[in-house]
């Protein structure tokens, strides 16, 4: 199958999912058409892509795909096109997220030909509790590209979509019930805040008031920590319990390095 451009849909509040997807497309040696649906404005207006092959990447929140991304996927229409499901998680586990993403893509009419779970810096990681900090890193990137190369090889070897086998993805149905998060959000230390507006600009749900970061909508906030990571002075901090202790909990229990996993169909004998 000939394909010039890999179309990528990514929801990625702290950027690791988008980095992984870009690495996959590099490995495919294909042109990249990226629809980054992290910003709420883009999600409202995004024209979802046509194209020969679609890659969709979502971060794992509580063992499921992040719900803002899930809502967006409802807009997709596959019309039998091949798709690749990618989840990025913070070194604990991805539980049912990859299966869920694959199921949604199938429901939307795609043929899911491959899947992968990669590790990204944990949203709650900091210098003290650095779970998966810096990932994807120099060890991950060649692995990420090699997944892209395998996908490209599989597509190149088929004469048409009908020849491409579908992949089985790991996970359980019914999917894991995600833990409920409390109402609230990170807060801003007024002494160190320089009013640069970065916290408001990166918030994927538009919860932060650009004029007064402390006026954050605690119902809308997903604790993605994009604002905490983007703050140039460290003024934006997560203090609300029990969320604030999750960084330590992750580090205490899930600091042993996990490695990426690929799922490709077993090639059928012609
Ligand atoms: C609310 C929330 C829940 C999360 N749940 C999980 C999880 O169940 N397993 C895991 O390993 N990482 C979990 N993470 C970490 C993210 O999956 C990880 O940091 C990912 O790289 C974030 O992707 P992004 O940089 O594209 O936003 C969670 C993060 C947040 C904010």
What does this protein structure show overall?
- This protein has 270 residues and is an alpha/beta fold.
- Helix content is 27%, strand content 17%.
- It has two domains: 5-175, Rossmann fold (3-Layer(aba) Sandwich); 187-241, 2-Layer Sandwich (Alpha-Beta Plaits), CATH 3.30.70.
- Strands 1, 2, 3, 4, 5, 6 and 9 form a seven-stranded mixed beta sheet that branches. It has a two-stranded antiparallel sheet with strand order 7-8.
- Helix 1 (16-28) crosses helix 5 (140-157).
- The chain starts with a strand and ends in a 7-residue tail after the last strand.
- The relative contact order is 0.17.
- Flavin mononucleotide (FMN) is lined by residues 12-17, 59-63, 88-93, 120-123, 223-225.
Secondary structure: elements and pairs:
Elements: E1 5-10, H1 16-28, E2 31-36, H2 40-45, E3 53-61, E4 64-65, H3 67-73, E5 82-89, H4 97-107, E6 111-119, H5 140-157, E7 187-188, H6 198-202, H7 226-230, E8 236-237, H8 246-253, E9 261-263
Parallel strand pairs: 1-2, 1-3, 3-5, 5-6
Antiparallel strand pairs: 3-4, 6-9, 7-8
Helix pairs in contact: 1-5
The structure holds flavin mononucleotide.
């Amino acid at each position: 199958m000939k394909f010039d451009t890999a179309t990528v849909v990514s929801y990625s509040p702290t950027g690791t999912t988008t980095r992984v997807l870009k690495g996959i497309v590099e490995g495919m040696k294909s042109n990249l058409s990226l629809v980054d649906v992290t910003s709420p404005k883009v999600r409202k207006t995004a024209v979802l892509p046509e194209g020969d092959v679609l890659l969709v990447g979502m971060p794992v929140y509580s063992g499921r795909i992040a719900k803002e991304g899930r809502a967006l996927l409802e807009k997709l229409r596959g019309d039998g096109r091949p798709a690749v499901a990618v989840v990025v998680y913070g070194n604990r586990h991805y539980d049912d997220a990859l299966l869920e993403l694959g199921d949604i893509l199938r429901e939307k009419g795609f043929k899911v030909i491959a899947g992968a779970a990669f590790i990204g810096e944990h949203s709650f990681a900091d210098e003290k509790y650095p779970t998966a900090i810096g990932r994807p890193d120099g060890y991950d990137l060649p692995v990420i590209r090699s997944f892209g190369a395998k996908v490209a090889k599989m597509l190149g070897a088929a004469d048409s979509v009908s020849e491409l086998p579908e992949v089985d993805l790991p996970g359980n149905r019914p999917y894991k019930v995600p833990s409920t998060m409390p109402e609230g959000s990170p807060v801003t230390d007024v002494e160190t805040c320089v009013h640069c507006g970065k916290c408001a600009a990166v918030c994927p749900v538009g919860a932060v008031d650009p004029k007064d970061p402390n006026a954050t909508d605690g119902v809308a906030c997903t604790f993605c920590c994009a604002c905490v990571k983007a703050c140039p002075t460290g003024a934006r901090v997560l203090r609300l319990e029990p969320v604030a202790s999750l960084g330590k909990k992750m580090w205490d229990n899930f600091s042993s390095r996990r490695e990426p996993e690929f799922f490709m169909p077993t090639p059928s004998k012609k």
